[in-house]
Amino acid sequence: MEENDRRILEREMYQIEQIRQLDLEELQVEEVDDFQNSSDDDDNNNHRDPTHGYDSTGILGEFTYNICVASLHSYLGDVEDTHHRTAFLDGGAVLNLPLFCLQGVVLFPGATLPLRVIESNFVAAVERSLSRVDVPYTIGVIRVYSDTANHSMKSASIGTTAEILYRFDNMGA
């Protein structure tokens, strides 16, 4: 066996051992108060998440999504609620959206992506998205990755639309 192949095999075996050890560790669960279901007059709905969305078949269903989570990402600084959470897109619709190509990031529908935008072209894309009428507060997100065989960057052919829930304006406006 070639020296390089032996090193790769040793590294893979080490990674497999690390994964097995992680599987044996007990997960710690942190309980968080549900801010929206804490009122006394809402006792009948304490076990139901009020946030609704569409499942993969396009049928209206429920999924767990805590809209208070974004404000808990303290490293983003003070954020402001955008108050626009109603953008459901029709199947087959063709839209022109600002596209964020993020290396190593796969955004799944219903997931939260804390994103700090500092480059001027991305800031401009977010500003355009905030002022749109047809699909307000919506951007596209796709994953880009390094193709080691060709020494180039490739982009995924499938992405996700993301809705801007909170924003931070570092200009003080």
TrEMBL record:
Residue ranges, annotated region (Disordered): 33-53
Record Gene3D superfamilies: LON domain-like
Acidic residues: compositionally biased ranges: 33-43
Superkingdom of the source species: Eukaryota
One Pfam short name: LON_substr_bdg
Domain Lon N-terminal: 96-165
Protein name as annotated: Protein cereblon-like isoform X7
UniProt source species: Cicer arietinum
Gene: LOC101508437
